Amino acid sequence: MASSLTCAGIVWAFLSFLCATASCVGFFMPYWLLGSQLEKSVSFGTFRRCSYPVRDESRQTTVMVEQCGRYASFQAIPSAEWRICTVVTGLGCGLLLLVALTALMGCCVSELISRTVGRVAGGIQFLGGKCSCREGMGT
């Protein structure tokens, strides 16, 4: 199996894959914000939540659903800012994963990644990283 990457490129490919995986896991986990409501522990992320209040119309009260799950629809995400964060962070994770998988394929396929392709991939990776961490930094 011939590779089109140098030793530095191979290290970059594996580190890219690890970072992309960590970003995707962080994006999918509902533990961005932790707190309590109605004396229960609650947490939520951009599109998943755990232990959330639901209005019980039959008893005219609010009850806590003690399970994790996605929002029923994109519009059910609490605010426009959270919806934007979901799209931007998801896009960033997708770009990071695309570059990482391409780089890993470059470890196995000769002449898949040239110097120009590597520079473009690095730019795409920078953009993906910027999208993934932009919301967390408050900018």
Query: Helicity, in percent?
Result: 40-55%
Number of strands: 4
What spatial form do the alpha-carbon principal axes imply?
elongated
Individual helix count: 3
Termini separation (Å)? 44 Å
Q: Any idea what the radius of gyration is?
A: 20 Å
Q: Quick one: biggest sheet?
A: 4 strands, antiparallel
How many discrete domains?
1
Characterize the quaternary organization of these chains. single chain
| Helix-strand category | alpha+beta
Beta strand %: 15-25%
Strand order, biggest sheet? 1-2-3-4
Protein name: LHPL6 protein
InterPro entries: LHFPL
Membrane topology: Multi-pass membrane protein
Organism: Scopus umbretta (Hammerkop)
Structural summary, described in words:
By secondary structure, this protein is α+β, with helices and mostly antiparallel strands. The protein has one domain (7-128). 51% of the residues lie in helices and 21% in strands. It is built from three helices and four strands; from the N terminus they run αββββαα. Strands 1-2-3-4 form a four-stranded antiparallel beta sheet, with no helix packed on it. Strand 1 (33-37) and strand 2 form a beta hairpin. Helix 2 packs antiparallel against helix 3. The chain starts with 6 loop residues before the first helix and ends in a 5-residue tail after the last helix.
